[in-house]
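Quarterly update, task 2.4: pyridoxal-5'-phosphate-bound model.
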Amino acid sequence: MQIREIPWTPLGGVYEQDDLDVVMKMVLAQIDRSAGFFRLPEEPTFEKAFAEHEGAQYAAAVNACGTGLDLAMRILGMGAGDEVITTPLTFVATPHCIVGVGAKVVFADIDPQTYNLDPAKAEAKITSRTKAIVPVHMNGIPADIDAFADIAARRSVKIVYDAAHAVGTLYKGRKVGAAGEMSSYSFQSNKNMSTLGEGGMVTTSNPEYHARLQRIKSFGFQYGPVDDVVEWGTNLRMTKLQSAVGMTQLSKVDEINHTRNRYARYLSQQLADVLEIITPFDDGTHFSPYHLYMLRFNDEAVNATRDDFVKILKGKYKVGVTFHYPPLWNFSFYRNLGYGPQDAPIAATVLRQLFNVPVFPRMKMEDMEYIAWAIKESVADLRRG
Ligand SMILES: Cc1ncc(COP(=O)(O)O)c(C=O)c1O
């Protein structure tokens, strides 16, 4: 094959004429002064459609997944003296929601196959102070929801899911939006669907949690014939424009997810026999929208490192590669709090080995063929030394 460049294209959301039309329509509507941007019919429409899409009873639109997680911690009453267990293989928003309410982050180790929080490892870290567990559906590969539900029932802890990557994920055939107490999704730019750069949604099947989400995200207001402020709140609202675009994005996210899934499965098939490369977990019991296509360089089986390999893949074969996620304890904030690889040795090893190659919906099958070829050639180059 001819060497060509496959850059890392970070934008996951696919904006098209339908998104543009809806933005134009909304902005034009503001010329009618009675319309206004506030009280938002678009927002409940999007919330209802999203809840249905994710198999939950309720959904509350917010300005980001991170603030959705913050709200979940607050609503569950987490605070000083409480411990909350989570995974170290994630974006910093996950542990930040625990720190943000003054509780203590406890990292438990991951399952080396799925890269998700290992329920048994999490349970082993439960103490009398543990109040909650925050698993992540990493890359859209579902966390073990049944195992966490069992732990929640037996050990009286609450489960909140970081579902940033999980729009469209199926766990044993079920959508994941009703799992645990609450799940927080992200529509930030590079997610599989996006609401003009930022946005999030918190799903739940608990009406009281939903009511509190709606109130706290809007200064504590309870809207009715007479608007009342019934608790503290702030402004974490999604805009009307974002909600409208959320509807157009939602209408195509399944197709986008299937494209990503098809490309990912093709790559995994092509790389199945390459000793140096470990492909994403797929035992046929779930559907992943592959927000990221994470590969692992098996540095324990061969005498080379991920960085040796990536140098060839990027340098010679021009395939864009990223390293999501940097270990959280590499950030001074978490390092200074005393966290390190000792908290989760399996995650520490996996984090050293992970790299991502571009799998995005606007790419073509030829791009996947090239990436598979480039990875195999890079391995062959490495073997030749
Ligand atoms: C696992 C995970 N959790 C939370 C977030 C935060 O999402 P947002 O940017 O919508 O707050 C991200 C965003 O990249 C993420 O990857």
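Highlight for this quarter: The CA atoms of residues 311 and 378 lie 9 Å apart.
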